[in-house]
Every structure is written in structure tokens, then in C-alpha cells.
Amino acid sequence: MNAITEHNALTEPGAAGFLHRFEGLRARLPGRDLPWLQSLREAGAASFREQGFPTRRVEAWKYTDLGPLKEAGFGEALTPVDSAIPLPRAAAPRRVVFIDGRFSPELSDPDAPVRSLARHLDEVEGLLGSVARHEGVPLAALNTALFEDGALIDLAPGEDGGVVELLSVVRADRPVALHPRHLVRLAPGAKLVLIERAWGHGESRYLHSPVLEFQVAADAHVTHARLQQEGPAGIHLSTVFATVAEKGTYDSFLLHAGARLARAEAYVTLAGAFSAAHLNGAQLVGDGQHADCTTFLDHAAPDCPSRQTVKTVLAGRSRGVFQGKIHVHQIAQRTDGYQMNQALLLSEQAEIDSKPQLEIYADDVKCSHGATVGALDETQLFYLRSRGIPEAEARSMLIEAFLLDAVETVENEVARAALSEAVSGWWQRMAA
Amino acid sequence: MPAVTETIDTVAAVTSGTYKYGFETEIEMEFAPKGLNEDIVRFISAKKNEPDWLLAWRLKAFAMWKTMEEPHWPAVSYPQIDYQDAYYYAAPVKKQGPRSLDEVDPELLRTYEKLGIPLKEQAILAGVEGAGESPAEGRMPIAVDAVFDSVSVATSYKERLGKEGIIFCSISEAVQEHPELVRQYLGSVVPQGDNFFAALNSAVFTDGSFVYIPKGVRCPMELSTYFRINAKSTGQFERTLIIADEGATVSYLEGCTAPMRDENQLHAAVVELVALDDASIKYSTVQNWYPGDENGVGGIYNFVTKRGACRGKRSKISWTQVETGSSITWKYPSCILQGDDSVGEFYSVAITNNRQQADTGTKMIHIGRNTRSTIVSKGISAGKGQNTYRGLVKILPKASGARNFTQCDSLLIGDQCGAHTVPYIENRCISAKVEHEATTSRIAEDQLFYCRQRGLSEEDAVGLIVNGFCREVLKELPMEFAVEAQKLLQISLEGSVG
What we know:
Chain B: Residues 155-219 form the SUF system FeS cluster assembly SufBD N-terminal domain. The complex is a heterodimer. By secondary structure, chain A is an alpha/beta fold.
């Protein structure tokens, strides 16, 4: 096992370290015998080499500094899987589990419509990388070069995939870097509720950088609930790409509750008329944490509605970032876009940076955005206090209400329950 | 102000392919050699007989500029500017101190006549002493400083203002007469190295207005600067500095025009405002530089840095702008709210028609306690225009009780134009409250129908609706300009409907 220990060692920090790892691993990464995949990985590596990790001079990274990532070295998670680690309680009746980025058949429900990407790469030529792009998204380029495994969900026309939990467990007992790649394709009329959960177990620093590609065909509907519950020293950098055809829906909810540094990017294209997108979320940012929710919504077809409500609560010395861009192409007449971003500051040392953005090239549109930032409303607090509720409890009620209000937008009950539980759990830990 | 009255006709003329101010005055001019280097900076400084400290200040700015890169983040596109292919100094040849109208270059007088500044004021503008300090029939007197290419040609009502202790003159004059004030405040709000265009301006600025309102004085009349780019291949780099001492109040208005040419000319101005305790500055702009023709040929690049510092407690700075001209507008009049309880305001209407591009907005930096800011921005895009609102609200940790309200609305007329909104909100203070709302839509069919049903033509109906859309901003303009600006808006959109 010399080779494994060799690559399990820390690499040099920064982009060069990751590129060297790619050089060292390219012959052993899954799909090495597929020429199309080899050239895709090479293209990813070349693109990442050219772009490097984004710096704060890049407009989209103005508020999030990847310094902690650039300064540290990370090893490869190649050691054998020890399936004895404790798992969180399942959020859905059917669950598939990835440990350190690799599919774990023994921990996964065989009835779930999820397979290991690494074992079915021969099926995904033309699909893998068709929704993602590398330009301007160096982390996606790096993921293409280095991905080891991931979920493959491919639903047939009219198929109902039901509710599935996709749990990614990271054993944070050593500094590893993971780049899972998940592919989700819904054929016309298919349905799926995916609860994607990132769970860190351990105190070590690590990098978990998944890329998800969603291809949503006509009349297909996907609900994508995301629970980011990484370990306290973890770095979570995820990127979602989705394209939605006519009358299809991509309905997502992002919950940031863990990690030392977390950024979730979503690039969603409404490509067919009457397609819809919801990009909701809540960010729970405690002392020492940095959370970032960045979305790019492309209205590339007429008659599409989109909705976005993102709420952030900040406690201790923390920083929250929201960046939401809606781009309405000239063809996208009768677009109805709405974006709301609210932040609640609970501490003197917290900082919130918010940048909602509209870029509109069509004239028959109705687009609006709103943003509010502030502390708890004194009049609401007074109302509760005057009815005999102690201050601490009143505050707690208002904060929980603020957050759960965002979670209410999730229609699926199982997904909503999982999110609500995570929100309440976070707040109870904070309040304690 | 006549120049504003005329602006209406001007814009009417633009839409039908002729820009009223598109004439060029044939006047004896003095140029510095083309290009930009240290010698030019020295030349300008020497020409203006400047003290050594100012030359050193300019040279430092020039050294900084050389190391800086032109910013490309605004949502505007234009061909690479060749900074060596322009004149950095152009001035009408001035005979020593004209004592009567006859001594003033008749071409210069004719220019002001064409610009609609009445004869009596022309006499004053041309610096003729005793030409009458009483206001023309029943109008509010307005003191005007006229800047022609690189230099200020005249300032009116100086004497009357002088009685109140108010200094209103060109900045070159201020350098000679009040060096201590200039030295204390110049660059204190916009330092030389602030940005690429501010550095360029600091190195080569040629003239501009200087205003000082002493303690407790409420300026008895509107102050105004009238900017005119005339000569070919020149850039205009004016520098305005307004200081309101404790308890002082002033309202200032600027207007601008340029000849119609198929080349692009650069206007890179810097405006600095300083408000001390309890002082209040209201700065209004009606910007009507030549916007280029309907194919986007020619026009002014208006790349301007405007910033006000509310240094004193309870001070207030209010920016109001109506931006109808320029082929490209790129400016963010800002407020640094340093003093406790200080107030910043930004009211803006920006219209882009044909191929005009505007990237404009504001920055409100809250530093002091209980500082308040209001931003109201109305963008109107028509034709192939691109209109961007870009604004920053930043609340620092010590700005407890800070409050901001921002509203930016965009109106789209036609399916070839674009409207963009890019607000940045950065809050580091728990007790601060920030609210932002933005909408983008086209003119509602039902509103249009309602007006049409009552017999209004489509253009009149659009005009009415647009004016309603901009009302919150227009009402901030000094009264007589507000009336003119309303008409201006309507005309600027002519040809964009139907």
C-alpha cells in the first residue's frame, strides 16, 4: 500500500498542490480507460491551472476569502472505508451513504434510485459535464479533474423517484480533500425529492467540494433540499448546476449550519418556457464561522417565474454572505422574478454582506428584490414581553420564527421536517 | 437657469438627430501640446502660476496614475482610450481683465448667447465689473461660474456673495487667493490615488469651482457652475471643492454641454464636498453632455468621481442628479457619514436612450452614530440604452443606530434596452437597520390605457407616467429646475415609443 500512503500525505498548499495531485492520480482515478473522460479531466485541470483558486479581487469572491484553503495542504482520502463510524439519524425513509466521497453499498438502501457514478461511468458520456461549466467556476473545473465518485440518479420518463436522502459523511480525523460529483437526470415527467446532506465527523480541517449537475426535462420536478452540517473545521465549497426544460421545476432549499468556511454556489438556467425555479435558503452562522450563499439564475426562456428567499442569522464573531444574481435574457419576456434577502444580527461582531443583483434585457418583465438587515425588532420583543414571556424566551421565539418562515417554503413534508429539525437544533445549541 | 431651459430643446433636438448645443465656437485657443507626461503636468501648473506644493501634489498624482490600471468593472463598453491622443490644456486666449463687454472676445459672448445665458449675465460671466448685480426680471438670482474647456471664464455675483463672506470663484483663483483653504481641503475627500480617473484628474485638472461658506451663513442664492467642452480632442478635467463651515448652508447646481462631434471626448471631473458641524450642502446636477448620435457615434465619456464628507455632527449632504446626456456615464456621488447624526441623500434619475450607457449609483459609508441615508434611484432605459444602478451601503461597527433606506426602480421602454441593479450591502453593526428594495418593469398597460382613454397621445401618456415614476427625485431639485427637468425627461424619450 505504498502508493496509497504516498498520496495520503499532505500535498503542498494552494492550487499547485491540487494540480500535482492530479498529475499523480490521473492514472488511478475512475474512468481512466475512457478517452472522453480523460480529455474531460484534462480540460478541467487545464481550466483550473489557468484560473487558480479565486481571490477576493474576483467580483464574485469579494466577500469570501479562500485563504484558509490556499494556505493548507490536504491529503487524498484513499484509505479503506471504516464503516463503523456513527451516522446521523436518517432524514428520509430511503438513504444512500457516501463515506469520504465513496459510495457505500452496505450502508445504502438498495431500493433507492441511486447508483455509484464511479461504477457506471460508461453510461454518462455526454451527460457528465453537460450542465456544468469550467469557465469562471474554477472549483467545478478542479472537481472535474479530480472527482472520485458520486451519485448517479437517472430517472425514466414519468418515473417518481420518491424521497431520497443522499448522505455524504466525511471522517474528519485527518486533513483530506474530497471532490464528489453527483449527476441527476430527470426524463420528461419524472419526479424526485432529494435531501442532500453533508455531514462531518471529527475535528480536523478538511475540504469537501462537491459538484452537482441537474438535468430537468420537460414537466419534470425536482426538490433539492440541502443540509450542510460539516465539521467545525471543515471547508465546504459546493457548486450546483441545473438546467430546466419547459414546464419543469427546480425547487431548492439550502441550509448552511456547519463548517468553518462554507460557500454554496448555484447556477440555474430556466431554458424552457414556463419552467420555474425556487432558490431558497437559510444560513445559520455561529461564532467563528463564515457562510456564503451565491446564486446565478438565468432566465433564458419566456414566461418563467422564479422565487428566492434567503435568510441569515448571525451570532458571535461571524460573517454571512448572500449574492443572488438574476439575469433575464432578451427572449425571456413575461419573466416574473422575486428575490428576498433578510439578515438578523445577534452579535456586535457579526457582519453581513448582501448583494442582490438584477440584470435585465427584456422589457415585459416583473422583477423585484428586497433586502433587510438589522437586529431583532424591539416592538415585536416588547409585544411578547408585555404578555409575560421572559426576554430570553421571547428572543428565541422570534429567531426561530424568522428561520422557520424560510423553511416553510419547502413543500415536501419529509424534506421540510428534516430542515426544521436542523434549524431548531442549531438554535437550541446557540441559545444554550 | 437658461441653460437648463434650453436643455429641453436640446434633448428634443438630439432625438431628431440634431443636438442644439452641438455647435463649436471658433475662438482663439491656447493648447498645451497633445499627450500626457510630466512636462504637461508642469506646464499646466506653471500656466496657472501655482505654488510648489500644488505642483508636487500633481506630480505625485501623476506618478500614482502611471501605476494604475483603468477600471473595467462597470457595465459599460467602449474602445480603449488613448490617453496620449488628447489635449490636456485648452483655454480661450484671455486678454488681461476685461473692463467692458467690448473687451471680451465676441465669440465667447456669442457662445453664451447661444447657450441661452442672457446678456446681462453674459456681461457678468465675462467678468465685466459693474455689469449689474441685480437679478434679472423677477428671477431668483443665481451666481454662475462658467468653465470653458480647461478654464473658468467668469464668475458672477462675486461681490454680493463676498459681503456675506462667501467665497465663490474658480479653483485656480482660489489657489492664488485662498491657498490655505485649498491646501487644507483639496484631496481630503478624494485623495490623489483614489481611483484611475481621480488620479488622472489630480494630475491634470485645469479648473473648476471653489466654494467656501463661512460659519453660520446661509448662502442667499443658488450657486451654479456651467461646464462647456468646446475644443476638439480635449479632455475636460475640472475639480470642484465645496466647503460648508459650521452651521452653513448652500445649494449648488451644475449643468454641462458639449459640441456635437463624431469623436469621443473624456470628461473626468472630481467633486469634493466637506460639511462641518450642522452644515448642509445640496448638490444638484443636470447633466446634458452630448450623448452621441442614434448609432452611438461620438459623445462624451463622463467618468466622474464625486464624494462628500459629512465630517461634522448633524451635517447633511444631499446629491440630486438628472442624467440625460453623455454617451457613457460612470459616476457614484457618495457620502462619508463621519459625524454623529449626519445625513446623506442620493436622488437620481438616469435616462439612457439610443446607445447611451450609464453605470451610476452611490456609496453611503456610515461611520458615525445615528447616521442616516436615503437612496432613491430611478433608471429609465429606452432604445438600445443600458442602465445600471450600482450602489454600496456600508455600516461600520461603531455606527450604532445607523439607518438606510434604498429604493431603486427601473423602467424599460422597448425590448432592445437593458436595466440592471447591483446593490452592495455590508453591515457590521448590530443596531443598524438597512432596507433595500428594487423593482424593474415596463410601463403598465393599464396605466397607459387609462391615459389613452382620456385622450392623451401615446407619447404624452408615456411622458406623464415617466414623470410620475421620477417624481420623488424631481421634487428634490430646486423648484425652477424641477419644472424644466420634468419637460426634459419627456422630450428625452421622444422617439422611443410606438
